[in-house]
Amino acid sequence: MAAPAEHVTENATENTTEADETEETASSEAETQNQNKEENKNCEEESNSDEEDEEENKERPPRVMDTPEDLRLEAIANSIALHPSRDVIVCGDVDGDVYAYEYSCTEGRTTELWSSGHHMKSCRAVRFSADGQKLFSVSRDKAVHVLDAESGKLVTRIRGAHTAPINALKIIDENLLATGDDAGTVKVWDMRRGTSILDLKHHDDYISSITVDQAKRILLSASGDGTLGVFNIKRRRFELQSEFQSGDLTSVALMKRGKKVVCGSSEGTLYIFNWDGFGATSDRFAVKAESVDCILPITDSIMCVASMDGYIRAINLLPNRVIGCVGQHVGEPIEELGRSHCGRFLVSCGHDSLVKFWDIGSLPESKVQEYRKRKRKDGKLKSLSKKAHGDNDFFAGLVEETENKREEGEEEGEDEDEESDSDSD
User: Which residues, 6+ apart, have CB-to-CB distance to 391 below 8 Å?
Assistant: First the structure.
């Protein structure tokens, strides 16, 4: 007997529902599989792109810059010293710490070598020995330290080397060094015995700077009392003292193959003495800076000077001309200048806790005209490096090129003026 119609309909409906559910399940599974495939494909693409980026980074060489990267210290550096034969710089800071770095023009390659905290108070001067194996430092704690330049380990300490804080340091030769303190005392030390062979006080204020002649016989000291002192190392005696200048003498350097002595001052004037004529100045040059705190000879005629206004100026001696601006620590006083062993880089440290590098490779070739140029209308110093008027100036090169063209035009105008004057005569 045939089944009732309603039963047949119910069975058919149930079969249809089951078939639909089966189709939906199959389609959802297919969609899930497709999604998984797409996700896997995306992951593979991402991993491939990451691998490609890594390969590109590996293949991409590190950027080589014009100068080494600036060093940012934890405290203000009072003094810097550059190794005589290696790309190594040492900094002494106001906390009494000494740091050594190996610098490089390759991006990311400048590294700290060692640090030393042997001084109890501010480290005021650091200097390398001529062979670069020893490092000498003096401090406000009145001590003289000798460190191993390779490791930074303390080798020799002279406690109480002065009765007043030590401010100046000069290496004379492999055995002798000179120091000057805040009370105006100058001492010369024989480091083989660790004792002073000359101990004289002829200044009424701090010793700011010390230098010696090429023969290592005569020592010159600049003082805050405004005088230049002359000492005979061989005879171990005081020779003479210059007349008083209107401001503190803050630095001293030999120029013109030792025939001229130049002293910087707190009033921004360079005082020039003839050798063997230390009693009175033979000339003076107003730099129009807040001060001249340190002097670094570049050639027999060209020197770099640093000031409290943060500018590093290149100056030609005789004729006395400001050549231009090498660089600056914006608005911050500069403590000291140094030069790399290759002669290409000038290094400066300032109150912004930065140690900066400047390319002065072309500076020794600078030529100065005998006649005075017209002053620039904008009052800006000529830029002598790409970083002179700002470290991150994108248009620095363009500005420098424009300035050079402008100066060439001014020189041509001056030449025309001179020719017209001569014709009229």
Answer: 70, 356
Phi, psi of 386 (to 5 degrees): -65, -30
Task: Supply 203's token pair.
Answer: 């200044």
- Rounded Cα distance between 50 and 330, Å, is 42
CB 107 within 8 A of CB 53: no
Per-residue b or e along 251-279, where b marks 16 or more CB atoms closer than 10 Å to that residue's CB: bbbbbbeeebbbbbbbbbbbbbbebeebe
Classify residue 36 as left (phi > 0), alpha (psi -120 to 50) or beta.
Answer: alpha
What are the pLDDT digits (tens) for 57-108? 556 788 999 999 999 999 999 999 999 999 999 999 999 999 999 999 999 9
Q: Mind listing the pLDDT tens digit for each residue in 220-254? A: 999 999 999 999 999 999 999 999 999 999 999 99
Q: Is the dihedral of CA 331, 336, 340, 344 positive or negative?
A: positive
pTM equals 0.79
